[in-house]
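User: quick one - fold this with iron/sulfur cluster bound?
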Amino acid sequence: MSARDDILALVRASLHVSGAEAPRRAAVASRLAEAPVGVVPQRGQGTRSQILATFKAEAERVRATVAEVASAADAPAEIARFLRENNLPATLRHGSDPRLASLPWSATALEISHGPSDGDDVNAVSAAFAAIAETGTLALVSGSDNPTTLNFLPENHFVLVFAEDVVGDMESVVARLKATYGQGAMPRAVNFVTGPSRSADIEQTILLGAHGPRRLHIVVVGQP
Amino acid sequence: MSLAATTPHFKDNVHEALTDARLQRALPHARNFIATRAAAAARLPEFEALRDSARAIKDHTLAHLDLYLETYERKVTQSGGHVHWARDTGEALAVILDLCKARGAKSVAKGKSMVSEEIGLNAALEGAGIAAVETDLGEYIIQLRGEAPSHIIAPAIHVTRDDVEADFRRFHRELPADRDLTQPEQLLAEARAILRDKFLSADIGLTGANFLIAETGTSIIVTNEGNGDLAQTLPKVHVVLASLDKLVPTLNDAAQLLRVLARSATGQDLSVYTTLSTGPRRPGDPDGPEEYHVVLLDNGRSAMLGGQFADMLRCIRCGACMNHCPVYHAVGGHAYGWVYPGPMGAVLTPSLIGVEQGGQLPNASTFCGRCEAVCPMRIPLPNLMRHWREREFERHLTPAVVRGGIGFWAFFAKRPGLYRFATDLAMRALHLIGRSRGRFAWLPFAGGWTRYRDLAAPQGATFQARWRAKSGAVR
Ligand code: SF4
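Assistant: Sure. Structure tokens for the protein plus iron/sulfur cluster:
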């Protein structure tokens, strides 16, 4: 017997089932089809402005920084300001996301590069698929629009979040993924990012910037 | 089992741990997790309801595991990935080594994976001439030191900052000898720079999985450093090594489990990175692996289903049980002698490597019940340890001294009059002798206890005697 068949047979023997029982199959089919939502904490819920306020507070709690701009066109200036005030190089890499490509970068002194990172970039910007108020989390999806390497390799990561994409909880992001990619389908990678990278492996002291970015600066676009 | 277990020498290990001054200096760090978990739980009113929800999800999954495994495999295949089934350690190693050899791999960048410790992957890779690079800072430190992890989420918790500095100076010879490494930040920066190169040059990235999602064929890992995420993004091939019990039906179910995982582990609401991977690079993707493989390991889990220890399969490896365990606090993780320490290890180890090898571990408990109280999956750990003790006793694996002691106690317990008389006498005697200090630093036949802690002197009467007096007064 193949390892596969053997393991399945062992599982079934331990459970005292054959695998053909209709009620069991129905229970599994309906769970997969309905994907019930369990206990969703109140913390991420509320009116639009409450949700945005919670997102900001929770993101700051995990040591991200958050700026709010009225329109996406203001984002380049905000990023340039952040780099200047933190004495960081005026360089920035981003993917082909039209929400980023269309911005007035040339109005700043930033030197812009495109595509995935090879590990030498100091700064990168991505546009989020969504964000979660409950935990101050960003949801980033893979692809040429926002290459995954930009989320992890640069020292400083900027993320643009459009206010209408801030939702209460992870379940709402899952619903948006289904709406975009289809039931049961997923992009190659979804990165939920909650604050800058950190490690507590040396005497349980939290240090920022382990393998991923040391700084995470979130720019929320278009407060309602 | 390929990592040599020193579990049968548990008593010697414990003795060694208790007299190891460096270890005893490092161990108090484990207690920090108690306050952080409590704060995280207190900040979420729904925490207890989420624990119930998490438990129900896992119970449902395990009861239908065969069907979820089939669905999961189908979804992985649909997304362009491959599932390799492995009955045991030998098969899992063979699959991974074959994948490496067929691609001429020279180095494997690893995310943190307890299952890879379970199968002794690093030694097998090195044996085949392939470099295994641990990328989690804690795992990297213990790999340099040639040690096993002593905690499932904080593998280097037994190592002090000074040790790390000494190890880095010993191994990072290419760097200037007079560099300043006094600050933890400097140690972190050095590890980051060295590991960055290794990530970029690795041929294969290997990670574990916190959850495998049947609905979508997705594997989920959580990290704080971003190391596992780089390990599965940069190399051409991503291999996920996970055991059967990681299955979860849907992404919504995973969202429930994620809410209790980090809170129970480090006291974070969510780990910094929760990464969902589904298959290899898609057309047009500028990064990500070109191949995606899952090695699905049984190694004794299927036999646990439906049995006395099935509850243990709900475990999500958060580490809360060891963080709250007085025995773990006293001896650390290495004394447990195999991969999984603490209460979860005491239950799981005999299941996975046999009661002959691991049967001593369930004795490493004071039955204080704190592990069960904090386990997010509500696993009845003390009860499960008790089951193992019964089995160990039945199979005459219990040491002769213990069997003799229990026999001695049984003789008196069956003769209540004699028992009362003897214990009354003993209590009075101990009270008289110990009255000046209120505690004993040494007692005949109790050296095993008093070597590392004092025994409080009895107050003069047995519980039974005081109960008799009290109920007499009430009546
Ligand atoms: S037994 Fe419970 S507390 Fe211990 S690691 Fe597993 S889930 Fe966490």
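One thing worth noting: The radius of gyration of chain B is 25 Å.
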